[in-house]
Design goal:
single chain; VC0802-like; nine-stranded mixed β-sheet
Length: about 400
């Protein structure tokens, strides 16, 4: 899909073809849809329509108005969920003019435009055409400017007081974790956003944190227990060394900040409660910070489980009541489950090599308890280096 295709797609003929393609693609047969559309459209127009419909389908679930936006599948897959994009954009709420570097289809630019005027920069004219079309759809045309440029040699203009960069990360083995293989490379992205007083660079969530500058705040963001974003904030937007943020479906954010773990929390055997931490906490290195809030201790130096004898609620962990724990042995584990009348189980793990799906199936077949009862949870992990199974029941939703 190129910029000319996007112009045609927004005409009455293009919109009519898009509606027809949406119906044709319900069955998922792209070839059939292309043939049917080709009776009334030029071949490149038919391809553009199918590309748009598949892009909107990939975008569904991320943005509420996905069926009205303009994108292809690749651009849609690279776009952040609305709640994540809006949370990150809020850092720029006191800014006037923010650059979105590597704008793609404009998902971040649209979120940023709720708080500031935006300069969307991309080297692909088709992507910039998407940004312009999506800005018009959202009624934000007067809030978003576009410029075609290669970020490897482009210099930010005067007047920017904020900058955001989401580098393209190649998905070839571990190359996406190698920051200097990104486009632009991480070093260039950081240099670009430092032209403004405050800026942020989106990272691969699995990045080696040692690759980041010491003055950057590193934030990890989750939604629905899934790690959705990692960001290096610099300049005036850096507020703490590390941040773990948990978003809820209503758009609320719980934020935990602090210095990375220093090994100051003891490790010992499970107590009355087990806390299964949100992935942001472990990636941000804030396990010990959360342990202090919960009056908890670690089970193992390298595992993101905590335990405590007092129940405390937190958005940063699920809490379970410990029924029993034992060195991992499947036969003995089955005996313990039967003693507790288990009819169903859910198996999870941290630091265990066991195939949890296969174990869960075997245990399920062997249990004789009431299957209508809530399942017991088995956490496979390590306690001071020993491989163990912790049998729990949910203590809160």
């Amino acid at each position: 899909m190129d910029a000319a295709d996007l112009v045609w797609l927004q005409t009455p003929a293009g919109r009519a073809a898009t509606e027809r393609a949406t119906t044709l693609l319900t069955s998922g047969d792209e070839l059939r849809a292309l043939r049917a559309l080709g009776r009334d459209c030029a071949p490149h127009e038919a391809r553009a329509v199918v590309t748009l419909v598949l892009g909107r389908r990939a975008l569904a679930g991320k943005l509420p108005d996905a069926d009205a936006l303009w994108c292809d599948r690749e651009a849609a897959e690279q776009t952040s969920h609305l709640l994540v994009a809006r949370h990150l954009a809020q850092r720029f709420s006191s800014h006037r003019y923010v650059a979105d570097l590597g704008a793609g289809m404009g998902g971040d630019a649209l979120a940023l435009a709720e708080f500031a005027r935006v300069l969307a920069v991309d080297r692909d004219p088709a992507r910039l055409a998407m940004v312009a079309a999506n800005a018009a759809t959202r009624g934000l045309t007067d809030r978003i400017d576009t410029v075609e440029a290669d970020l490897n040699d482009w210099e930010p203009p005067a007047g920017l007081d904020g900058a955001w960069c989401d580098p393209a990360r190649r998905d070839e083995g571990d190359r996406r974790l190698r920051p200097e293989s990104w486009s632009p490379p991480l070093s260039r992205a950081l240099a670009l956003v430092r032209h403004a007083p405050g800026g942020g660079v989106k990272l691969a969530p699995g990045i080696d944190l040692d690759a980041l500058p010491a003055d950057a705040e590193v934030e990890f963001v989750s939604l629905g227990r899934g790690l959705r974003a990692a960001v290096a904030w610099v300049g005036t937007l850096a507020r703490a060394a590390r941040t773990a943020t948990v978003l809820d479906e209503a758009g609320g954010a719980a934020v935990l900040t602090g210095d990375p773990d220093a090994g100051d929390v003891e490790s010992r055997e499970p107590g009355t409660y087990l806390y299964d931490l949100d992935p942001t906490v472990g990636r941000a290195g804030l396990v010990e910070r959360l342990a202090a809030d919960l009056g908890a201790w670690k089970l193992d130096e390298t595992i993101a489980y905590l335990s405590a004898d007092e129940a405390r609620s937190t958005p940063f962990a699920r809490r379970y009541r410990v029924l029993a724990w034992l060195p991992f042995a499947e036969r003995r584990l089955l005996e313990v489950l039967r003693a507790h009348g288990a009819g169903r189980v859910e198996v999870t793990r941290r630091g265990s090599p066991v195939d949890t799906n296969a174990l869960e199936r075997r245990l399920q077949r062997a249990l004789e308890g009431d299957p209508s009862r809530p399942p017991l949870v088995i956490a496979l992990t390590r306690v001071r280096g020993q491989h163990v199974a912790i049998v729990c029941e949910r203590d809160e939703n």
